[in-house]
Design brief:
The complex is a heterodimer of chains A (277) and B (267).
Chain A lengths: L1 H38 L6 H8 L1 H34 L2 H16 L2 H12 L4 H8 L13 H25 L3 H9 L4 H12 L1 H16 L3 H6 L7 H10 L4 H25 L7
Helix pairs in contact in A: 1-13, 2-13, 3-4, 3-7, 3-10, 4-7, 5-7, 7-10, 8-9, 10-13, 12-13
Chain B lengths: L7 H25 L16 H8 L1 H35 L4 H13 L2 H16 L10 H25 L3 H9 L4 H12 L1 H16 L5 H4 L7 H10 L5 H28 L1
Classes of the chains: A mainly alpha (277), B mainly alpha (267).
Subcellular location (chain A): Cell membrane
Membrane topology (chain A): Multi-pass membrane protein
Pfam families (chain A): BPD_transp_1
Amino acid sequence: MRSYLSDRMGAALLMAPLLLFLVLAYAWPFLGVVKWSFTLPTPGLGQYEALLTDDLVQSVFIRTLRIAAVVTVVSVAAAYAITVVWVRGTPAQRLIAEFCILVPFWISVLTRAFGWVALLSNRGLINTWLQAIGFISEPLALVRNEFGVIVGMTHFLIPFAVFPLASAMRSLDDRVLLAARGLGSSRMRTFWTVFVPMTRSGIIGAAMIVFVFSLGFFVTPAILGGGRSVMIAELIYLRIFQSPDWGLGAAISVVLVLFVGALMALLFRYVRPKQLI
Amino acid sequence: MPTYRPGPVSLIIAALVALFLLMPLLAVIPVSLTPSRMLAMPSGELSLRHYRALVEDPRWLQSILLSIRIGVVSSAFSTVLALCFSLGVWMFQPRFTAALVGFVLLPMVVPPVVSAITLYFLLTSMSGFSTFFGYDTWLGVAMAHSVMTVPFATVLMLVSLSQLDRRIDLAARGLGATVWERATRIIMPNIKFGIITAALLSFVLSWEEIGVTLFITSVNAITLPRLMWMGLRDNIDPAIAALSVILIIITVLVLAVRSFVARQRGA
């Protein structure tokens, strides 16, 4: 009995500091943000009404969903291609694929966005070269628009899509694939009718992770969009710091959290958390 | 036994993706060597002036030192909190574990911009009580970074604890070890690697944190990413290219050493 009690005490003592810290430094201020959304500038549901009627907010929401959808499709497809090699290639191919996935993964989002600016801007690598070989006379507008945002976000999110895909591909039984080939199925057909369907949980997981991440993305769109292709996260920033309208910024945040929460709940109905690592 | 290898079509597509992934990292190299004051490709001669600017301009050095200080403090804080919490979960397996762990992981899954506005609310409220901890102070930034890194540290600790054999702890307990002795002399030495990794990851995440930092600093607590952000938004400063090259080289070296060490351990 004594040991049971001291066990409970020990657990409480060990777990309390972190829980207390997060309640005070995260949960409580989040409730404060929720309060802002109902009280600033005037108490009531005015901010949520504005969300439904304000044209700017609406267009930003739609743009965010559109960009997130495109980015999700492109990054999951690209991640799939490189993950196949990372998981199933020869040792040398695996090493190269791992290098190409992990190096960008560990490099900061700012450096990567800057790399795209260096490539895509008017005086950047691509435009300089295309002009030097006389292919174009005026620089192409590759950045400060939606194209630049999609490229940069896809680049950022591919490594995140790789991990759930790799976990699905590793758990796949080789013999099934060899059986399909042995029965006379072509490489293409084996890939599309056996390999891809058997990694479905990885694809769903990767797509969900990428989609959820892109909804709240801030740094890459702000740099590569150059203020012209504003997404939800940047709109929140602008509402807090540029046209001080804290209530609206807070209301958008609350809606974003609810939306992401609903998506995660949907995700976990199909995929177990362990399959995502 | 034959294995199922990717065919030529897969290899070509994967190579294109690999090129796409490396391209922006390679593009910063020529830009960092431009003699021009603005972002441009070097035409003809190369120059190291932007590397020199990093050393000579005190702003860069100051922000690097500030980022290191914030990184060390927030990483130490979140590693200790995450370690205690994970030990509690593993040793006592309390009821509602899933809910408690889920709560701790929230800052990792909530969109970063929402965490940012939340921490902005926290620090501006604290500014009223204390000039050390509030908005735009280094301690405030360190605390905010701890909130953001503690879920990652916790995940790493829980993963390395899950690989630990419970019987060694049961043996220690049976032989009369106290909770403190079990934690410090039995469990912690066995998850040393996980603890070090958690501390390192927390430091790296704090070192490169920008989404939250942008909301909670203005003129005093200028961390390195914050300074880079300022140079990227207004007039693009090629010194950022020089800095990026250095950061990329460090990352590649660290990864190479890590994979070498992992190979040695495996062999």
